[in-house]
Specification:
11 strands; five-stranded mixed β-sheet; alpha/beta
Length: 349
């Protein structure tokens, strides 16, 4: 039995190795020189065919591409990037995977980058696993052509400055480094708009759940409408369902307004309190993500496709135009708008 099995194995190997050209069976090792030899052209002609060089005829190009497709040739991306000193890759560092906003953003960015011939490389900051510094180093090692960051720790600013001499860096939703490009949403204006929306519907006891960066605009809007001091509710900065629930039970707001990642725990707290939206309490969310839409919650929204397009356009511009006195950093600011649904109740005034 052993001799028969061995004989069969030898026969199979013979048929495979003799009847199949070596480069066709070992596709990973196929090179441009092999394609050139098969097609009867020079190495440079094959290279021009893949680079869409107009110096070769369309018939020759098609002959080369057809054969490459037939043998499943995959260009060596690493070799191409070394030769051209570019990787056609844009990196992005995401601070929190749990935020649905980033999932939508990545989808738009990848789609638009493909039109420019770029691919997207994603790195996530994860407590205890990957710090911001780790992510930055990984992107540098990957030799990305451009990098999108969302804010940065003070400890990493010097490293980012040095990195910006080699990589086009753009700040998204932050402009803490004014010497680098940024694409932001006008949070100050958006918070005032959201607060005013609730006030116009009769709400004065508005509990705002957000970080401190938005609190100034919230209080500005309340004071502009001469809201009495006893109705100026504290801004809840701790993103904790129990803490938000405590504030709701203690302060008895008629409306809750929650920004970005705070809105999920705010919604949970309202439901835990046994309150019905909007009959018992109104709810206004920042960030028009999918679950907000499904629950018909009125939300502050923005045109994510427009923002993503602006990000890619700015990166492509910066890759061609390094920072100098004639090409300083550009800071783009986008407005928001309200998508009105069924979560805010009109109160009698």
């Amino acid at each position: 039995g052993l001799s028969i099995t061995f004989a069969n194995t030898v026969l199979l190997c013979y048929n495979y190795f003799i009847k199949h050209p070596f480069m066709e069976r070992n596709k990973r090792m196929l090179t441009l020189k092999d394609i050139a030899a098969h097609c009867g052209v020079s190495y440079s002609t094959v290279s021009r065919a893949f680079n869409k060089d107009s110096r070769i005829s369309e018939s020759t190009r098609q002959k080369i591409l057809d054969y490459a497709n037939e043998v499943h040739y995959i260009p060596n991306a690493a070799a191409i990037s070394l030769k051209k000193n570019e990787t056609k890759t844009v990196g992005i560092i995401i601070p929190k995977l749990s935020n649905p906003f980033y999932i939508d953003l990545l989808e738009f960015l990848e789609r638009i980058l493909k039109k420019f011939g770029y691919r997207l490389l994603v790195s996530f900051i994860s407590n205890g696993i990957s710090s911001e510094a780790n992510c930055l180093e990984s992107m540098a090692t990957a030799r990305v052509d451009a990098l999108i960051i969302m804010g940065c720790d003070a400890d990493n600013q010097n490293y980012i400055h040095r990195l910006s001499n080699q990589i086009a860096i753009l700040q998204l939703l932050s402009n803490s480094l004014p010497e680098l490009d940024s694409v932001c949403v006008d949070d100050f204006k958006a918070t005032i708009m959201g607060t005013q929306y609730l006030i116009n519907r009769g709400h004065e006891r508005i509990l705002f759940i957000s970080d401190s960066s938005r609190s100034e605009s919230y209080f500005t809007a309340m004071k502009r409408n001469n809201i009495h001091k006893e109705n100026l509710l504290s801004v809840v900065e701790k993103n904790d369902c129990d803490e938000i629930l405590h504030q709701i039970n203690t302060l008895h707001p008629t409306a809750v307004m929650a920004s970005s990642v705070y809105k999920e725990n705010a919604y949970r707290a309202i439901k835990t309190a046994g309150l019905q939206i909007p009959d018992d309490i109104s709810f206004f969310a920042f960030g028009d993500v999918q679950w907000v839409q499904l629950l018909e919650i009125t939300a502050m929204a923005h045109n994510l496709e427009e923002i993503s397009t602006a990000i890619v356009d700015q990166l492509v511009y910066r890759l061609k135009n390094p920072y100098n006195a004639q090409c300083p950093a550009q800071h783009l600011l986008f407005d928001t708008f309200i998508r009105e649904r069924k979560s805010v109740k009109y109160l009698c005034q």
